[in-house]
Automatic annotation (TrEMBL), chains A, B:
Limits of the HTH crp-type domain: 155-224
Protein name according to UniProt: Crp/Fnr family transcriptional regulator
Source organism (scientific name): Gillisia lutea
Signal sequence annotation: none
Residue intervals of the Cyclic nucleotide-binding domain: 20-141
Gene3D superfamilies noted in UniProt: Jelly Rolls, Winged helix-like DNA-binding domain superfamily/Winged helix DNA-binding domain
CDD domains to which the protein is assigned, alphabetical: CAP_ED (cd00038)
Keywords in alphabetical order: DNA-binding, Transcription, Transcription regulation
Length: 240, 240
DNA sequence: TTAGTTGTGCTACTTAAGTAGTACTATTCA
DNA sequence: TGAATAGTACTACTTAAGTAGCACAACTAA
């Protein structure tokens, strides 16, 4: 891949925000990008083979990719990460060189850069100072998972749903992003619940006018009401 | 601290197994250890001030330290990690330089090595190849948290309790370790539940003879029965 | 020694979440 | 176009987990 060409291309913003490529001079940047090639994955593509991510490392240029698990006996699903532009995967494999028992699915048409894991590793070994770039990104994923654990154990579904909505409202446009075109089922998997239960809570939010829902479309109509409801739920937990 | 002296001391095994000090030549090893000093913390010491772990980094030489969170409204607790010999903390702070909203408590008399975070960081910046040592350890914590999330969402308390017991049975001695002297409350916090519920399930395991319990003492009497029960619970989840 | 604290074992009750099923609608694609 | 599929809204039911409370035992420290 011509690194220079690509760097000047329309995916520049995806690459400059990518943790792996942080603070590199142009020469180094081109050198590391030369390990990668372009791939396009159509919407709804599923990757069920863990080995794929053991042998290649990916950077998302555009589109959403969900990392998820399936409980083999019950068939229940759980979305661990909703990856998007500038995200990389699979960090687990890169960090410790073990297989990672998760699946991936494209929620949009996705463009990625792909590099053979061995080549990326040997490049990093030749330039160990760039290992440092991985650390804050690893920290972010650790915090995200820790937050997942405490949310699941401390708070009920309606609170988790409120939090999910609130944190995906864009500050500037004041509209729901990233998850606004997901089905109830996909929303449920993002907070470790089931379609029916999430629908039940969405109906209540619809009734009080804070959201508007239609088939695979979700709008936040009244963010301050959502924030208010979240506050109330916290107070309801107070031990007297 | 005299690195050479300490390295030959009785904590040698704690240090050689420590991720941060992996594969270092003796000189480098002494250099990094010179950043650390010795600290002793008595059993039951609590650290509720997040700043402490923002400014110092610790390696456990002996004793157990639990990393936990408290939900401020309800007062519910949750143990995130049960750290022990050779573990380091706080990795979250070291990786991304942000505060980490968790508490720490010593479950034993604990001995640690402590280094100022800034000095450790600047040493690592001078020797960036040693950043690499942190990666597999970060991977291990990521996997542990991911596993926590999927356990909580996929499996019920009795299954989580069975798994907790089984994974803490020492292969060689066939006895329960690490958690064998914890109260029901502490066991509950390790799997995101409550004392009463855990006790309920422990009573059932006692009745079938797989464990023996007394005040703050827990013994596994029949590991294969526990494994058998775990298998059965999985089958019970099968969708027909 | 004793008072206070902590841990245990139990009963009874409440509740949110999950499960099952069904009618209906929107979308897809052959 | 029309059949199949996917998504939604709803009711009724089940259940595990959480909650509250209490009696008692076992440590701990004044």
């Amino acid at each position: 891949m011509k690194g220079e060409h690509l760097f000047r291309s329309k995916y520049k913003s995806a690459l400059t925000n990518c943790a792996l490529l942080n603070n590199l001079d142009e020469e180094t940047n081109n050198e590391i990008l030369s390990l990668f090639h372009h791939e396009k994955w159509p919407k709804n593509t599923c990757f069920l083979n863990h080995e794929k991510f053991f042998f290649h490392f990916y950077i998302i240029l555009s589109g959403r990719v969900k990392m998820y698990q399936v409980e083999p006996n019950s068939g229940k699903e759980l979305t661990l990460f909703l990856l998007t532009k500038s995200d990389v995967f699979d960090l687990f494999c890169l960090l410790d060189g073990d297989k990672h028992q998760v699946y991936y699915e494209c929620l949009d048409n996705v463009k990625v850069l792909a590099a053979p894991m061995t080549e990326l590793r040997s490049w990093l070994n030749r330039h160990p100072e760039h290992y440092k770039n991985l650390l804050p990104y690893a920290g972010k994923q650790l915090r995200s998972l820790e937050n997942y654990v405490s949310d699941i154990t401390f708070t009920d579904i309606s609170t988790r749903l409120l939090k999910l909505l609130i944190r995906n409202v864009n500050d500037k446009s004041n509209t729901l992003e990233l998850i606004n075109d997901l089905s109830n089922k996909e929303l449920a998997y993002l907070i470790g619940s089931t379609r029916a239960v999430v629908n039940r809570h969405l109906q209540r939010l619809k009734q009080n006018g804070s959201i508007k829902i239609s088939r695979k479309r979700l709008q936040v109509k009244n963010l301050s009401l959502l924030l208010h409801l979240l506050e109330n739920q916290k107070l309801a937990n107070l031990k007297i």
